[in-house]
Design brief:
- The protein is mainly alpha-helical and 274 residues long.
- It has a domain of 189 residues: f41 fragment of flagellin, N-terminal domain (Up-down Bundle), CATH 1.20.1330.
- The strands form two sheets. Strands 1-2 form a two-stranded antiparallel sheet. Strands 3-4 form a two-stranded antiparallel sheet.
- Strand 1 and strand 2 form a beta hairpin.
- The longest helix has 55 residues.
- It is rod-shaped.
- The relative contact order is 0.17.
């Protein structure tokens, strides 16, 4: 029964107008943002899962940086060890030349002069090879006992980078001399042992580098997969949301018309009093 004390019809139409308008606004917001979780109320569970994934992605991205840093440290050490090995190979050649029966005192002195300078260069490499200002090859370096790198999304996902202290090799050859044939013979023996040690060090560094390279690949894949999964949860289906928007737009227009008609109905009822 139509009454004038309360415009129930208009109030109902306004309620639907508000609901339809809110739904239309939400659809516009999701289409324009490209996300279906523009706020926690949109999809509480999805928002929570996506937030957790994004947190893991952020940690893994830093882990990827850590892996790269570890690789750089090992590459630095590897390059230095290679240089040391090359220098010692030259020193071996000089020691072999010094053991020629035709070597004179003058020639031995000339060979020893170069030999001594190469010993100094080996020592320089050991002492001056650093990464981020920290020594890499000395026994006092952090890497001598092992430096820990976080390479995953939990505190237990770590790899320890340990680089053998090559300063022991430099010390071992520090007193060698080619000033005599006997000294050259002793130098040859010591250099063979030193080069073998460097070879072992290189093998250790190479194995750790290989591990980090594999780990870096795993971290990169994990980041890609997590980002894809998070996007799948939060990204809006544009075609479906466009359909929702069109429907809600139509309903909003209809509700506006209904409110107008309901108010007109109230005015018409008042004419009965005239």
């Amino acid at each position: 029964m139509p009454v004038i004390s309360a415009n129930t019809t208009a109030n109902t139409a306004v309620a639907y107008l508000n609901a339809n308008s809110n739904a239309e606004s939400t659809a516009i917001e999701e289409i324009s943002s490209g996300q279906n979780t523009t706020n926690a109320a949109s999809d509480p569970a999805g928002m929570a899962i996506s937030t957790g994934m994004n947190s893991d992605v952020a940690i893994l991205q830093q882990a990827a940086v850590n892996v790269t840093s570890g690789e750089s440290v090992l590459n630095t050490a590897s390059g230095a060890l290679t240089n040391m090995s090359d220098i010692m190979t030259r020193m071996q050649s000089l020691a072999a030349e010094a053991q020629s029966g035709s070597s004179s005192t003058a020639s031995l002195n000339d060979l020893n002069a170069e030999f001594t300078s190469l010993i100094a260069e080996v020592s320089n490499i050991v002492n001056e090879t650093t990464f981020n200002g920290e020594p890499v090859l000395t026994s006092t370096a952090t890497y001598a006992t092992g430096a820990t790198f976080l390479v995953g999304d939990t505190s237990s996902d770590t790899i320890s980078v340990k680089i053998p202290a090559a300063n022991t090799v430099a010390i071992a050859i520090g007193s060698l001399s080619l000033s005599t044939v006997t000294g050259a013979s002793a130098a040859m023996t010591e250099l063979t042992s030193a080069i073998d040690s460097l070879s072992t060090y290189q093998s250790s560094v190479g194995a750790q580098l290989e591990q980090l390279l594999y780990t870096g690949s795993v971290v990169s894949t994990s980041i890609t997969n997590l980002q894809a999964a998070s996007t799948a949860i939060t990204s809006v289906d544009i075609s479906a949301e466009e359909t929702v928007y069109t429907n809600e737009e139509t309903l909003t227009s209809a509700a506006v018309t209904a409110v107008s008609d309901a108010n007109a109905m109230q005015s018409e009822l008042l004419k009965v009093l005239q």
